[in-house]
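On clarity, I found the account of how folds are encoded harder to follow than it need be. An entry of this sort, consisting of the sequence and the corresponding backbone structure tokens, reads as follows:
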Amino acid sequence: MQAKQVIIDGHRQVSRQGQSEVADPREARSYWGIVVRRFVRHKLAFTGFVILALLVLAAIFAPWLSPHGPYDMDIEAFGAPPSWNHPLGTDSVGRDILSRLLHASRVSLAVGIGSVLLNVSVGVLLGGIAGYLGGLADSIIMRITEMILSFPPLMIILVLVSILGPSLFNVVLVLGLLGWPQICRLVRAEVLRLKEMEFVTAAKALGIPDQRILLRHLVPNAFPPVLVAATFGTAQAIIAEASLSFLGMGVQPPTASWGNMLTDAQSIGVLGSMPWLWLPAGLLIVVAALSINFVGDGLRDALDPRLKE
């Protein structure tokens, strides 16, 4: 059977029996090498990546980095300012702030990553089906997407969490199931563009099943924009969890998260005279969100299709 060359996202590929293969593996390596170099040259993105990596490492090694246990109480230091024994001070019941911050990073990052994995999985599946099949399936999925997007996000999150009950699992579930419409619309648009290309036409002519075309050819080619959207979604999920926990509807004490460590900031007296109770957690939320957004900006620039010309 004669092989047919097609161009897929700037890479020369061969369509044979419905499968697309990179004709020269060196071309793919060269492209990804350009992406990596472009990302590294993006100073803010690379700085954000380093900071994010440090936060992840701190979360992984929190039990070894913490000077005290996250639930240990020092009865001689209730609301104490920073000292040698407690570098960031203690909270109102004598728990070490630094230790709780390190363990809280596990919870907050887990919420961000877990919810994004869930909404990307749902969004890619439904977006791929809507874009490839079209017709009634496309109409139903898009109407559901528009219905979810029409509600104020924080309001519907608060309602669902109050119904299900505030907990770490429920926060991840709600954020994941409400964050998929953006991914769905993005994947649908990419699939609509890609399914008109020659390699898809050739695969259909060879009798390749639709699910194989969708999973093996269309979805992988829509991966770069989904990756960029996922990074921004992670930052949004961390901020949403912090907002819910601050309002008492997220991760519940004594489990520490960056959001519920800010609850002491509701007092005017604490805001002015005891900044160590809320300032470290607030700074970590800002730093984590900015770092993830910088990484997303860098990925968006590095994966720009014009690099493939």
